[in-house]
């Protein structure tokens, strides 16, 4: 069962326990929380086996979306990926800011910035990648965390980004002792790029907040592709 489906199960157990404790005070029939719990468990099971956890992800992301800071964090996080990829010459092909938007576009997870990574994939297929290519992508993957930290003084997102970096380093034969070192180094690289282009970053955040197209976002940046 997926993590999000397990979260739904946990919610149902919490609601069942809460209703058992408070039900007598509100004359709540035991049938109501039982049916609600059964429904949630049924949804969680269907989501896990039929939707591969996407339904639970969309539901939990929808709930989190009522928090304005959560929405703002997502935009700033993804704008960090977008700008650094643009600066390093990695073509951005799209972006989504919620699990629902990602699902509509056929993407998994909670959404994010998508890139044309065909060159990276072709090099990984043969188990060899240039140092420049590795540095560029590692910096892009850590850019969301760097952006969040700059704006909010900490980062709540970025687990998937770290996993991508670790997966590639593992394929290339790097030892686990290198992972954290690489993360810190490339987060610092991304931070420097963002600070050097802060006005462009803020313009990009505003454009993405308005759900501007990728092409319009590039125009807002006013900078060319890097090498």
Notes on the structure:
The protein is mainly alpha-helical and 227 residues long. It has 11 helices and 2 strands; from the N terminus they run ααααβαβαααααα. The protein is globular, with a radius of gyration of 21 Å.
Structural class, judged by helices and strands? mainly alpha
Poorly predicted ranges = none
Question: Shape from CA axes?
Answer: globular
The helical percent reads over 70%
Mean pLDDT across all residues, rounded? 79
* Strand fraction: under 5%
Radius of gyration: 21 Å
The helix/strand series, from N terminus to C terminus, equals HHHHEHEHHHHHH
**Total beta-strand segments:** 2
Strand order of the largest sheet: 1-2
The biggest beta sheet is recorded as: 2 strands, antiparallel
- Our measurement of the CA-to-CA distance between the termini, rounded to an integer number of angstroms, reads 43 Å
Q: What is the number of helices? A: 11
SSE map:
Blueprint: H1 3-26, H2 31-50, H3 54-64, H4 68-87, E1 92-95, H5 99-104, E2 113-115, H6 118-125, H7 131-152, H8 159-171, H9 176-196, H10 198-209, H11 214-221
Antiparallel strand pairs: 1-2
Helix pairs in contact: 1-2, 1-3, 4-7, 4-10, 7-8, 7-9, 10-11
């Amino acid at each position: 069962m997926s993590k999000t489906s397990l979260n739904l199960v946990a919610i149902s157990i919490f609601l069942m326990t809460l209703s058992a404790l408070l039900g007598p005070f509100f004359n709540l029939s035991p049938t109501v929380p039982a049916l609600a719990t059964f429904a949630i468990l049924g949804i969680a099971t269907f989501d896990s086996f039929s939707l591969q956890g996407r339904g639970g992800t969309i539901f939990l992301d929808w709930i989190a979306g009522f928090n304005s800071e959560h929405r703002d964090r997502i935009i700033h996080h993804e704008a960090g990926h977008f700008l650094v990829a643009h600066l390093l010459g990695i073509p951005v092909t799209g972006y989504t800011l919620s699990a629902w938007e990602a699902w509509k576009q056929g993407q998994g997870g909670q959404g994010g910035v998508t890139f044309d990574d065909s060159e990276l994939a072709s090099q990984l297929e043969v188990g060899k990648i240039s140092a420049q290519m590795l540095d560029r992508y590692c910096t892009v993957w850590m850019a969301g965390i760097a952006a969040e930290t700059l704006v909010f003084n900490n980062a709540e997102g970025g687990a998937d980004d770290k996993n991508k970096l670790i997966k590639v380093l593992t394929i290339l034969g790097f030892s686990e002792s290198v992972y954290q070192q690489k993360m810190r180094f490339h987060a610092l690289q991304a931070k420097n790029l963002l600070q050097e282009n802060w006005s462009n970053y803020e313009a990009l955040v505003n454009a993405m907040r308005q759900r501007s197209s990728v092409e319009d976002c590039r125009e807002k940046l006013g900078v060319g592709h890097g090498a």
